Amino acid sequence: MVENETSQRQLAKVLNVKQQTISRYITGEREPNMDMVIEIARFFNVTVGQLLGTEEY
């Protein structure tokens, strides 16, 4: 759990959002807009399709 929270904090800092926002994306309480999806894909160095599960790695 602590490792997950640390990762969420790191991602939130890079994306300039609150850690709570990242947590809500993960739990499905909130959905990121397309610009944010692109930024998250860039952070993880994957395509948007890979991030969304519509494309294989």
Topology diagram in text:
Elements: H1 2-15, H2 19-27, H3 34-44, H4 48-52
Structure, described:
The chain is mainly α. 68% of the residues lie in helices and 0% in strands. The protein is built from 4 helices and no strands. The N and C termini lie far apart (26 Å).
How far do the termini sit from each other?
A: 26 Å
Number of helices: 4
Task: Compute the CA-based radius of gyration.
Answer: 11 Å
The 3D shape can be described as: globular
Major beta sheet summary: none
Task: List its traits.
mainly alpha
In short:
The chain has about 55 residues and is mostly helical.
